[in-house]
Amino acid sequence: DAGVIQSPRHEVTEMGQEVTLRCKPISGHDYLFWYRQTMMRGLELLIYFNNNVPIDDSGMPEDRFSAKMPNASFSTLKIQPSEPRDSAVYFCASSLGGPISYEQYFGPGTRLTVT
Amino acid sequence: GNSVTQMEGPVTLSEEAFLTINCTYTATGYPSLFWYVQYPGEGLQLLLKATKADDKGSNKGFEATYRKETTSFHLEKGSVQVSDSAVYFCAQTHNNAGNMLTFGGGTRLMVKP
Predict the structure, then answer these.
(1) What tens digit of pLDDT does each residue of A11-27 get?
(2) How confident is the model at residue A32 (pLDDT cuts 50, 70, 90)?
(3) Can you give the C-alpha Rg of chain B in angstroms?
(4) Residue in chain A lying closest to B43 (CA)
(5) Which residues contact A16 (CB under 8 A, 6 or more apart)?
(6) Of A4, A24, B5, B43, which alpha carbon lies 20 to 30 A from A72's?
(7) What secondary structure does DSSP assign to A60-110, as a single string?
(8) Residue A115 pLDDT > 90
(9) pLDDT in tens, A69-86
């Protein structure tokens, strides 16, 4: 069974460019989470969705970041315009949701480098 | 509040040594507790979990017991291998939003041959 799929795995872009990260959750999972991981700040939750609806976006750094989930099998995280401080590894995770199961399953991540 | 505190790393051990990574949580009630492992260049993988007090989660030789009285969920392994070198994250379900997880800062383990 396929796990969480993210693309691209690596992205290098110049400051000011638009970046779109993609995620396909595990089929049947109702929750989707976007995280950012850096050495300085560790693992941060950016936003999460339940049944394609954004529930909590308080972790989104600023208006340059936006996330969508047009259907149960696809989500995007967009940064426009990108800045060097956005360089990080971005993870997508999905879960069935409580009370069945609270554990989250992570994708392999997208390593973003903004020069 | 919701916070998870882990011992700071890196933890450096020789192969076959005993491992303990401490984790304490602050959620009220009975959160579910997790240990995740992150190998270099990969995403986080669920290692083990416990959902109620006194439960013991175990996997791949790792164990952790849910201690309500000390709000702890320490990770242990009797004999580590070089292949266990990774970053380990403790996590709890969130008080007010059970489907969110609160993660600790991670503990890097390095095992030398």
Answers:
(1) 999 999 999 999 999 99
(2) very high
(3) 13
(4) A108
(5) A81, A82
(6) B43
(7) --STTEEEEEEETTEEEEEESS--GGG-EEEEEEEE-BTTTB---EE---E
(8) yes
(9) 999 999 999 999 999 999
Query: What's the pLDDT at A89?
Result: 97
**B35: closest CA of chain A, how far (Å):** 10
A52/chain B closest Cα distance in angstroms = 14
Q: Which residue of B has its CA nearest to A108?
A: B43
Residue B83: DSSP 8-state: G
Find the farthest-apart pair of alpha carbons in chain B and give their distance in angstroms, rounded: 44
Query: How many CB pairs lie under 8 A apart between chains A and B?
Result: 48
User: Binning pLDDT at 50, 70 and 90, where does residue B97 land?
Assistant: low
Q: Chain A contact for B32, CB < 8 A?
A: yes
Mean pLDDT of B65-94: 95
Q: CA triplet B76, B77, B83: central angle to 5 degrees?
A: 125
Return all residues near A86 (Cβ < 8 A) that are at least 6 apart: A19, A64, A79, A112, A114
| Assigned token pair, A40 | 């300085």
